[in-house]
Amino acid sequence: MIKEVFITETNCITPLGFDVATNIQNIVSYRSGIELHLNSSLMEKPFYASIINDDQLNEAFAKVSSSENFTRLEKMMILALQPIVQKSKFDFDTKTGFLLSTTKGNITDLKNPSDNNINNVYLHQIAKNIADFFGFKTTPIVISNACVSGILAVSVAKKLIQSEMFDNIFIVAGDEVSKFVLSGFNSFQAMSDLPCKPYSINRAGVSLGEATAAVLVSSDKQNAKIKIIGESAINDANHISGPSRTGEGLFRSIENALAEAKINPNQIDYISSHGTATPFNDEMEAIAFNRLGLEKVPVNSLKGFYGHTLGTSGLLETVIGIQSVLESRIFTSLGFDEMGVSQPINIIEKNENRNINYFLKTASGFGGCNTAVLFQKIN
Amino acid sequence: MEALKLELKTKIIEALNLEDINIDDVNDDDSLFGDGLGLDSIDALELIVMLDKDYGIKLVDPKEGKNIFQSIETMAAYISANRTK
Amino acid sequence: MKKNTYIKSYCTIQNNEIILNGESIFKSKSDLFSDFSKKAYQNFEINYSKFFKMDNLSKLALLSSELLLKNEINSDSEAKIALVFANKSSSLDTDVKYQNSISDKENYFPSPAVFVYTLPNICIGEISIKHQLKSENSFFIFEDFDSEFMTNYANNLLSSKKADKVLCGWVEYYNEVYKAFLYLVANEGKIDHNKHTLELLNKN
Fold first, then answer.
1. Chain A, 232-271: which have a CB under 8 Å from a chain B CB?
2. Helix H segments across chain C?
3. How close C47 comes to chain A (CA, Å)?
4. In 3D, which of A141, A208, A159 has the Cα closest to residue A180?
5. What CATH class has C6-203?
6. Which tens digit of pLDDT belongs to each residue from A126-156?
7. Contact: B45, A187; criterion CB under 8 Å
8. How far apart are CA A313 and CA A321, in angstroms?
9. Residue in B17, B52, B53 closest to C53 by CB
10. For B53-73, how does the pLDDT look when each residue is reduced to its tens digit (9 = 90+)?
11. Rounded to an integer, what distance in angstroms lies between the CA atom of residue A246 and that of residue A244?
């Protein structure tokens, strides 16, 4: 008998709030975390991004710990996990896993390489720092798989519980807006001069963002918020930075997830897509969704609220998606104005009520990776 | 212009790591993308960086690149006309 | 009942030497990885010009996977070979290279060709592209090769039928210090697939 797997706790730390409820309040008010920033240490000219306020971050962290030893990203991660850990009622033993999802971790420490700093750049080290803070006993598992990392972590956790390696798994995802990443996206001409416009005709690229998100994945049905019923992560095998023109990897990932969940595409009630607002990504998604007959399913990209939060995005957007299911309401694809993809898709243009039984989360990333996870409402 | 074309061929082979292509193999009017040298989208972005770094030309609209980078011939002509270094 | 799984073949690359299924099949006196990898590429007649655009991590991954995948892929049917890789340093070797290219305000020319390799999973993408593997794939980071996790994860992919075979690997590269230990897990083969045999094979 294959074990059932659930998400039982969620949390997020974002420019829209340091808990899920505050984030939802701001989303309901159509408030975006994307603002114009003038910070020459990050970028010479002003740029739009969604960045957490340092004073607010430090103030919140001071309530949790007086330690001076954590990096900015580690503080964000600890704040995300902390309430979830506090609520948990089981002992942290060999059946309690810990997954950390990030693309660049403490990359800002590369600027001033010293022995201590370079050590912090190792992703297993940031995971160890977080694990030690909370007293997790098992070897931390780090997922670094470009922009699908956050949702891939959920898929990996589900596999690990079904294979009985763990009973409970804490997941935290995090990435920062850094000069390293800003300059890189710029070199790809992939950053928009204005706040991003997912799926829109004049979309011009991403707005970067930073956030952390955390969930508890468990076989415990009693406290379940949602059930994980299918997942797959298929590579395009096409190009290392551009997506497949036929959306092949994403198409197969969703198809596999549906097959595992034993449901049809027409049963999906809502899709939280990747929607980074680059010309190629959004077009690819529209093609993949149409190939599966998903063109009528309400879909949103949350990148207009949070920017592209890289290794956090898949998990953060899942956390918000879970709220959509719990509260029976779907949120607008902020930033979208005029349809700009060649195939029709049903973009959510305003916040509205909707009952959701089956929710699909997708993501895609550099390296040709894609991930699709299907969730089912607990009745 | 001939010296520039030779310089471009050398630079492109080196900057884009075209290991199995010799300068002699590259004709001035061979298409750089598609069937000719087979450059891809990342190569195009690298050429934009090269224009800036080596010739002081900042492309305002990267879509212009399609015409400029058609061949060594078109690249040399554009650089000659617009270089600031 | 849990089905047994097996290691069909394995390859180790370190110290300028390539060892396939326990036998040394290529050795070079070169000190630098760029020279060694070029010689290996030529020796095995890989004939794939994109190789030279790759960063060192991707070159290492491609070389070590090439010898294991050569006999597994035919044009008749699509191979359902999952790719599960891990290392310690992520893409740090290229991260440092990229960081250096943005450190000097006077000489500020961020390179997209370098930036794209500042993600460890790109090496998986390169292998997928070369062999047209539209399959399950994921990249993990551990301080050391975690045989228990890798065994568990690969077995799960096979038992859930999400893959017919799994190419697993530890592909570590940082500043000229490198090791690749790749192995193909399948439902039939000569060597039992479990954490003990993996640790034994990895030690050599």
1. 239-242
2. 33-43, 56-69, 92-103, 112-115, 122-131, 147-159, 195-203
3. 18
4. A208
5. alpha beta
6. 999 999 999 999 999 999 999 999 999 999 9
7. yes
8. 12
9. B17
10. 999 999 978 788 889 999 999
11. 5
A85-105 mean pLDDT: 96
Which DSSP state fits A103?
Answer: S
Instruction: Find where tokens 């001071």 sit.
Output: A62
**Spans of all domains in chain C:** 6-203
Q: Give yes or no for a contact between A36 and A48, defined as CB atoms under 8 angstroms apart.
A: yes
Amino acid, res. A65? S
- For residue C161, the tally of other CB atoms under 10 A from its CB is 9
Q: What is the mean pLDDT of residues A165-188?
A: 97
- Distance spanning both ends of chain C, measured CA to CA: 32
At residue B61, the pLDDT reads 81
Q: What are phi and psi of A211, to 5 degrees?
A: -175, 165
Token pair for A314:
């898949």
pLDDT band at A115 (very low <50, low <70, confident <90, very high): low
Record: contact C51-B19, CB cut-off 8 A: yes
Q: How many CA atoms lie within 13 A of A146 on its CB side?
A: 27
Q: Does residue A116 register a pLDDT over 70?
A: no
**pLDDT for residue C1:** 59
How much is the average pLDDT of A351-378? 98
> What distance in Å separates the CA atoms of residue C113 and residue C119, rounded to the nearest whole number?
12
Could you give the C-alpha distances from A226 to A13, A208, A272, in angstroms and in order?
20, 29, 15
- CA C170 and chain centroid, separation: 6
Q: ipTM, 2 decimals? A: 0.98
- Mind listing the domains of chain A with CATH numbers? 5-218 (3.40.47.10), 227-377 (3.40.47.10)
Full-model pTM = 0.97
What is d(CA C114, CA C99) in angstroms, rounded to the nearest whole number? 10
Does the CB of C12 have a partner CB in chain A at under 8 Å? Answer: no
CA distance A201 to A41: 32
C-chain residues within 8 Å CB-CB of B18?
Answer: 49, 52
- Residue ranges, chain C, pLDDT below 70: 1, 204
